[in-house]
Amino acid sequence: MRRLFVAALAAAGLAGVLAHDSHQVSRRKTLGFGPVLPNAAYHTNPVYHTSLLRASSDPFEVARVFVKDLVRGIPGSDFVIRKDSYTDEATGVTHVYVRQYVNGIEVADGDINVNIKDGVVLSYGDSFFRPKDSTDMFTAASSSSDPHSEYCQSLETEIANQLQHLDVHKTGERSNALEQLAYLYEWNCKFVDAPEFLADHPDFAAAEDAASGDISRALLQFMLAATPNAELQAQILDNPKKFIPEMRVSFQHHHHTDQPFFTVENVPDTVNPVKGRLAFVQVPQGDSTTLQLVYKFEVEMQDNWYETAVSAEMPHRIISVVDWANDSPVPLAPVPKEPQSATYRVFEWGINDPSLGDRSIQKENFDALASPWGWHALPVANDPSSSYLSAKDASKIRNTTTTWGNNVFAHEDWEGRNNWVNNYRPDAGPRKAFDFVYQPKKTDSEDALEEAQKYINATVTQLFYTSNLVHDLYYRYGFHELAGNFQQYNFGRGGEENDAVIANAQDGSGYNNANFMTPPDGQNGRCRMYLWNTANPYRDGDLEAGIVIHELAHGLSIRLTGGPANSGCLGWGESGGMGEGWGDFLATTIRSNKNYSDYAMGSWAANMEKGIRNYPYSLNQTINPSTYATLDKPGYWGVHAIGEVWAQILWVVSQKLIEKHGFTEDLFPPKPLEDGTIPEGDFYRKAEYTSDGKRKPLVPKHGNSLMVQLVLNGMKLQPCRPSFFDARDAIIAADKTLTGGENFCDLWQGFASRGLGVDAAVKGRTPWGGGVRSNGYAVPAECQNGDVPPPADPAPGDGDDDGDDDDWPWLQWVVEKTTVFSWSWPL
């Protein structure tokens, strides 16, 4: 397999692409693959079930009765309602997350999410294990079904397909999409055959005792594939017994279940002890699945934070892997004394980057509902820098004069390491006037980094300001404590605490990128922003708001999809692609204004008018021809390209709502009144009330604010590992819950105009985005406008992207002009 790959690259003139990064772009190694479960389904029709009528009005009891009926007859099956389930007060919908157990062992991908309101199951996603044959429920590690190998074989096929379009005899001709696939293959497939090799290695098989030897071996097997350190890889292959005895396994029991959990210390190339547990995962077998026993590991490394499933018996195959790193009523706690409000010299909210306006003084414009104490106050008990204080100080409130607060810890990270508590951050003094100079000058190339670092105070201030506004905005649309938002202290509102965003400015681990790590609720998210050496002086990603917004949207979508405690729902394929697409859509929506414009992503930082995506986001089908079937085109293998298609579809749908409902210049809802109620202002429609006097959910009155609300509500309704179809249906279901479905046809027409109509289809969809898709332009029969005509192709040879040979000269020209940027900065 490896020989085929090298030979293919050599023929394409790309054999050296992995050995030398001529683009000076940070390419963070990342793994991501796993099976598509043929039994997974999402149902959006309300369920009125006889057994539910006998249930109480308690939504959790309704969920329990409903799921009990669903799982009846599955041998040895039981379920647990997860503690991160919650009722969304804004919509009245209770989101119940259920995890399956078989013979007392967790099925890690056996999920049901039930959405309930007024005793009715509005919708539910279901990926519970259901055996085709009760006598054949389990799969051994030596089984022929191997998702890792299947992924790599499909990747080889895709490389071969793209090579057919490349004239290897043309000097210098190269495909950026092929280059991306080369890296994916190198990262994900280099050691795909290693499980069998190590299983036969006498030092590997005999190392350590039986109590923890399997755990250590399985984990070391994963680290071989995960580490970017070639020297360490060679040492593991040559002498595994050097590492296994040093990996100390400690067992414990979780207080909610009797299942043992464990931690593993001294794991090579990790920055913290690895957390793990024994579990089942489902492995596809035709149109059903079987269970395989695995170790589920949470592996925190310098540039990655993985959740992976590795078969518990040798050969220790990697079954699935998700990288958690992706390129907010009156408080119940005592209110601190009124602090001095901070001011910041920044590019104000709405100015996307330095090319669009000047810096100005902005107030600490925190939202009283989202950030009751402002952006600089947090309890000492929740302050990571106050751990040395005595217990009597724990109840105190700390008001900081730096970029350190309850929502965000912002600072420099020039070393590019995981240290952050004591990193440098600007101190604005008692007045909290964050007013710092930013006047970078062109310098010699060797001095460009030092020149950028001179303005770290302005950079960190901007990152802190933008990140807090994003926190407050997302909060007001439903990303609150119960939903898993990022805060050190949750004001007694529920959810897990101590997880404010760690925001690294000018992160020294690379250039020309950004990424966000999203562990489950209760663990800090980590945002890493980079300098961009695409111009002189260097451009600072911290100053382009769209990039920051995109990164923080990863935390939003991952915690809202499948529940706050499950960070594995957007790992790869269409699901992972939509994780990227939501970030682009929200960044573009936030920067947009009443006078319609097309928008490119990352154009200032990249010093490139077209930005870092294949196309700008546009209603013009000549400028952006993306449709659902575009996912089958060369170059759309990875999650970032898939995300572009999803973001473009959402952009088109949002314009349908704007056409119908108008546009608001301010996406922030009105601040709460003194009694805690939210006024309608010019933001919400006039409030409506139920027969018993309760106020119904407030509905944003403008198209752009309504679309943001529907997108976030849809994330809460959709299942774990959603497809484009699931996410589309969840948005339409969200509108039905919020407005009674008054935008049903408008939404369908928007989706259908880009190929995601009711007749859209996919055959043979693979976990990583493969399959054969067909556009569908039809809308439901009840929509009087009927079918939506397909978009017209532009003239042949100028980018119609219809797969004909006439596209390739134009596409190749694009590749040559955008080789550095089109995928290398995935964000």
List the helices and strands and how they pair.
Blueprint: H1 2-11, E1 41-43, H2 50-53, H3 59-71, E2 77-81, E3 86-88, E4 93-102, E5 105-117, E6 120-126, H4 147-163, H5 176-189, H6 194-199, H7 202-206, H8 210-226, H9 230-238, E7 248-253, E8 260-265, E9 274-285, E10 288-300, E11 305-311, E12 318-323, E13 343-346, E14 360-363, E15 377-379, E16 397-399, E17 408-412, E18 433-434, H10 448-453, H11 456-476, E19 501-505, E20 514-517, E21 526-529, E22 531-532, E23 539-540, H12 545-560, H13 573-591, H14 603-606, H15 639-661, H16 703-717, H17 724-739, H18 744-753, E24 761-763, E25 772-774, H19 807-817
Helix pairs in contact: 4-5, 8-9, 11-12, 12-13, 13-15, 15-16, 15-18, 16-17, 17-18
InterPro entries: FTP_domain (IPR011096), Fungal_virulence_M36 (IPR050371), Peptidase_M36 (IPR001842), Peptidase_M4/M1_CTD_sf (IPR027268)
GO cellular component, one term: extracellular space
GO molecular function: metalloendopeptidase activity; zinc ion binding
